């Protein structure tokens, strides 16, 4: 019925938009008296491919994917358990079918199934059995499983439970498998929940696989279960299933009230003794001499009172359920036959008045009988089995409804027919055969659809390389990429290394502050401090070693520089830079000097990364800070300070320094020319360690 409503685009009134719109799954709710049938509802809805959300369903351990993993854990704990082992072998983890299991058992009729499996593998390896296709397939699967089982048992002994479970997920790809099934999102959430619950279990005083399995078995022995994790958001387009109690305060456009024929639970009125808050205790009368038990008057009276209270509560539940529907209500129940239905309802035919008599309400054994006796008296409840005598005020009551009955064979005709299983080795051949077939449908040819399906399955994402990096990089992060001596081209980065993803960063991170006070400064910190001092000098003054030393004291006093870092700076080295030709030019044009100039540059990603195609429209945003430049009217002189130790005995020789920083300076040059709209006539690398200025 739900599929029919969706397919025919049944219109409902949307209170938010104040207009009609087609019904969607989220507008439908199934109200149930209990959670007992939730798992059945879930499986049936999966068959019909209807998305469904079960609120607080306590059927976690009964889910197929969870049951398989639990069976595997039992086998890892003790492989000589036939039922868990057979379940695992039949499951997708191993993939044997019933015929193969029978073939394995035939080879050795005695002993547990684990011994039989070992014997089967042994005779296959010794060629002691006819090597049919089924035997070979079973052997390959079992051999792999036994190797994995040995590894898993070692992991169980040496590692934690959560490590074992995650190892199973990784080795079997079971998470990926269930994710591709119907309701894969919920199944995946269930497996993740098992991992999380095992993790919480091990946070207690209990440890190990054996204890965890015993814990779950004790829960199941008490007929208890856990709630499934919720994998749907509140706005998910799916049918909701909840109990009547849980629906209090909620309203839905379309409501299916389920299992109305469920008999009331009156067991409290049938015990040998009944308690009453008002009248006390009522028990049966025991004749000790005659050894006979009689129902006493007190017990019968309390039983009637208890029944009235129980039925009153059921009637309140029914009221809640009936008032949850805003626009359409479906009442669902079952009877042995249509004749039984009308016979059950027609007892109200002789009543008068709007309200059902007390005796009929007390005699009812289900909500469906209450509702049926009410509906029977309306003119819409016509039937071919009984002649109606009732002609009271409810006959023409201004409401309309229809009563539809379905036999078992009618319902079976609605069940979707499962697709025939295709052998794993044949499915691709079948698809290719269908793709080449010239079978026409009413809209498109089936061949074209199958070719499209094959193309989609074999398609590769054309921008895979772009997913391994970001569109935002700093110059310092990628400066090592630029070593090409031709300033119009830059060395491209190879993205084929799968270990490198996201942004390309320096191999060392800045030292945390709590370490800076107790550990000697490293070269990177000294370099940063040197840059800071170079930006702090007053270009209008004479810059000597004494001036630089005084500046360092002031920066330390102002808290801008750590004392330990300042002690590592060479004041004479900094001062000697301003004795060079570039240093004197900077001081001579102090009013034209710009320092600490931030910039951003947008360049095609294909110029940086080798695997980005040349025709790609992807761009890379590079940002950085230029140490300084002199801006003349018609050109610019660019400079950048470097604290690398350069010399004959240094790690970096003077002739190699240009290659190291050429690409970085090219980026600075390009960014500056774009921003200032002037050519950069010269770009200098100022090597402070040997007082040399290298022009690029």
Automatic annotation (TrEMBL):
The keyword Nucleotide-binding applies. One of its GO terms (biological process) is double-strand break repair. Signal peptide: none annotated. Keywords: ATP-binding, DNA damage, DNA repair, DNA-binding, Exonuclease, Helicase, Hydrolase, Nuclease, Nucleotide-binding. It comes from the Bacteria. The lineage of its organism: Bacteria, Bacillati, Bacillota, Bacilli, Lactobacillales. Pfam families: UvrD_C. Residues 1-249 form the UvrD-like helicase C-terminal domain. This is Helicase-exonuclease AddAB subunit AddA. One of its GO terms (cellular component) is cytosol. One of its GO terms (molecular function) is 3'-5' DNA helicase activity.
């Amino acid at each position: 019925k739900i599929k029919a409503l969706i397919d025919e685009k049944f219109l409902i009134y949307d209170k938010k938009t104040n207009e009609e719109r087609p019904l969607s799954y989220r507008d439908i709710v199934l109200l149930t008296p209990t959670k007992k049938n939730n798992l059945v509802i879930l499986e049936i809805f999966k068959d019909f491919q209807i998305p469904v959300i079960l609120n607080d369903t306590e059927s976690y351990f009964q889910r197929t994917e969870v049951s398989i993993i639990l069976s595997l854990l039992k086998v890892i704990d003790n492989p000589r358990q036939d039922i868990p082992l057979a379940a695992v072998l039949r499951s997708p983890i191993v993939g044997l079918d019933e015929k193969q299991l029978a073939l394995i058992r035939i080879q050795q009729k005695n002993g547990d199934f684990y011994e039989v499996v070992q014997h089967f593998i042994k005779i296959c390896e010794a060629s002691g059995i006819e090597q049919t296709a089924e035997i070979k397939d079973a052997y390959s699967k079992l051999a792999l499983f036994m190797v994995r089982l040995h590894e898993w048992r070692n992991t169980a002994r040496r590692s934690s439970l959560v490590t074992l479970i995650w190892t199973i997920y990784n080795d079997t790809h079971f998470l990926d498998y269930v994710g591709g099934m119907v309701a894969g999102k919920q199944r995946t959430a269930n497996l993740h929940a098992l991992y999380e619950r095992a993790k919480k279990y091990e946070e207690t005083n209990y440890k190990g696989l054996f204890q965890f399995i015993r814990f779950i078995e004790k829960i199941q022995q008490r007929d208890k279960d856990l709630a499934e994790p919720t994998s749907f958001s509140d706005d998910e387009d799916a049918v909701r299933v909840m109990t009547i109690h849980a629906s209090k305060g909620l309203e839905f456009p379309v409501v299916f009230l389920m299992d109305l024929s469920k008999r009331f639970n009156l067991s409290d009125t049938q015990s040998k003794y009944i308690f009453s808050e008002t009248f006390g205790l009522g028990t049966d009368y025991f004749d000790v001499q005659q050894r006979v038990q009689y129902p006493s008057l007190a017990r019968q009276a309390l039983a009637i009172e208890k029944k009235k209270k129980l039925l009153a509560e059921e009637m309140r539940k029914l009221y809640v359920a009936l008032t949850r529907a805003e626009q359409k209500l479906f009442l669902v129940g079952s009877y042995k036959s249509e004749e039984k239905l009308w016979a059950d309802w027609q007892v109200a035919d002789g009543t008068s008045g709007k309200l059902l008599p007390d005796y009929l309400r007390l005699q009812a054994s289900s909500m469906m009988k209450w509702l049926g006796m009410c509906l029977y008296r309306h003119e819409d409840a016509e039937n071919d089995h009984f002649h109606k005598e009732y002609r009271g005020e409810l006959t023409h009551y201004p409401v309309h409804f229809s009563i539809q009955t379905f036999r078992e064979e009618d319902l079976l005709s609605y069940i979707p027919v499962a697709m025939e299983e295709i052998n794993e080795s044949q499915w691709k051949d079948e698809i290719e055969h269908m793709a080449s077939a010239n079978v026409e449908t009413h809209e498109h040819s089936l061949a074209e659809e199958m070719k499209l399906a094959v193309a989609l399955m074999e398609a590769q994402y054309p921008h895979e390389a772009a997913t391994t990096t970001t569109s935002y990089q700093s110059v310092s992060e990628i400066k090592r990429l630029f070593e090409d001596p031709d300033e119009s081209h830059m060395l491209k980065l190879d993205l084929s290394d799968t270990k490198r993803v996201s942004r390309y960063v320096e191999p060392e991170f800045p030292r945390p502050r709590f370490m800076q006070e107790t550990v000697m400064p490293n070269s990177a910190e000294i370099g940063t401090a040197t840059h800071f001092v170079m930006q702090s000098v007053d270009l209008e003054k004479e810059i000597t070693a004494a001036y630089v030393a005084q500046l360092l004291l002031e920066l330390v006093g102002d808290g801008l520089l750590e004392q330990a870092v300042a002690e590592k700076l060479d004041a004479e080295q900094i001062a000697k830079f301003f004795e060079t030709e570039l240093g004197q030019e900077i001081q001579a044009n102090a009013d034209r000097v710009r320092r600490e100039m931030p910039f951003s540059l947008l360049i095609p990603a294909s110029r940086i990364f080798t695997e980005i195609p040349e025709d790609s429209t992807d761009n890379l945003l590079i940002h950085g800070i230029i140490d300084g430049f002199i801006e003349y009217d018609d050109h610019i002189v660019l400079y950048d300070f470097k604290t690398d130790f350069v010399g004959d005995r240094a790690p970096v020789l003077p002739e190699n320094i240009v290659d190291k920083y050429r690409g970085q300076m090219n980026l600075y040059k390009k960014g500056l020319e774009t921003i200032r709209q002037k050519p950069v006539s010269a770009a200098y690398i100022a090597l402070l360690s040997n007082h040399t200025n290298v022009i690029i």
